[in-house]
Specification:
Blueprint lengths: L6 E7 L19 E6 L6 H8 L4 E4 L5 H11 L4 E4 L11 H9 L4 E5 L6 E2 L4 H18 L11 E4 L3 H4 L8 H11 L4 E5 L1 E2 L11 H22 L12
Parallel strand pairs: 1-2, 1-4, 2-3, 5-8, 6-9
Antiparallel strand pairs: 4-7, 5-7
The protein binds guanosine-5'-diphosphate and magnesium ion (MG).
Length: 241
């Protein structure tokens, strides 16, 4: 199924020891490299991860947020393809081949979508679904794209395009930033359906209003900057070189 490309899977984890046994063993054997980005967990996240995958690479990072963790993992990835998943059981590693296939079929960047036919979620409150819908709609209007999801942690890309995303945020707005930057970089972005299961143990760290506000600011800032970066349309004669 997965051909001769190498695949890195990035797993940000902050106190996810109880969830990793339901996640890491499901990563398909065709994956070449798994990188756990541990936010100095105070449970035995790292020990459990090493038990489950003896060859796992572990990065230790202060818990400055999911975005900071993902950026560190992305920078460290050595595979041709990079896939980001969560450590809490919400994203199903068995879907990785679907993401990889879309990349092999010509996409530069593949985003999971819980809101296209075949996708779904059991992990979002109605309020968060409404917020996510609002952000999707705003991005569709401001950037002229047809996305169906925005703040979802399951995404994959050819590792070579990472510099084009110029990722520079630390929090849960990271996926929104990745999605928008992929569009601004004129990459071929494809959505694949994905099912988000409930977090298995513990509580999510996302806070609806503070993190939603960060997402909204990211969307507006990216739109403003993208306008500012456009060269002004020249009228009349070109200046001679
Ligand atoms: N290393 C690291 N991982 C984090 C941090 N914040 C969140 N994560 C991980 O990012 C993933 C998504 O976070 P989660 O709390 O489930 O977010 P939610 O599902 O949106 O509420 C999980 O695997 C977390 O363990 C952090 O500061 N550092
Ligand atoms: Mg979660």
């Amino acid at each position: 199924l997965i051909s001769n490309v190498s695949i890195s899977v990035i797993v940000p984890a902050l106190n996810e020891a109880r969830n990793l046994p339901a996640v890491l063993p499901l990563i398909p054997p065709a994956v070449d490299e798994v990188i756990l980005v541990d936010g100095l967990s105070t449970d035995n996240t790292v020990e459990v991860a090493r038990l489950l995958i003896p060859g796992i690479r572990v990065l230790e990072l202060e818990p400055h947020g999911k975005g900071a963790a993902l950026r560190a993992g992305f920078e460290a990835a050595s595979g041709d393809i990079t896939v980001a998943i969560d450590a809490d059981g919400s994203t199903d590693p068995c879907e990785i081949p679907l993401f990889v296939q879309a990349l092999l079929d010509g996409a530069d960047y593949v985003k999971g979508s819980r809101f296209m036919p075949g996708g779904g979620t059991a992990d979002m409150t109605v309020l968060r679904q409404a917020g996510n819908w609002g952000f999707v709609t705003l991005v569709r209007i401001l950037f002229g794209v047809r996305f169906t999801d925005m703040c979802y942690g399951y995404n994959a890309f050819w590792t070579r395009i990472l510099p084009e995303l110029r990722l520079d945020c630390d929090g849960f707005e990271i996926e929104t930033l990745m999605n928008i930057r992929a569009v601004l970089a004129h990459l071929k972005v494809v959505e694949v359906p994905s099912y988000e299961a409930p977090r298995i143990h513990g509580e999510g760290r996302l806070q609806t209003f503070p993190d939603g506000w960060r997402v909204l600011k990211t969307i507006i800032r990216e739109r403003a900057n993208s306008v500012a970066y456009q060269p002004a349309v020249k009228h009349g004669k070109e200046a001679p070189l």
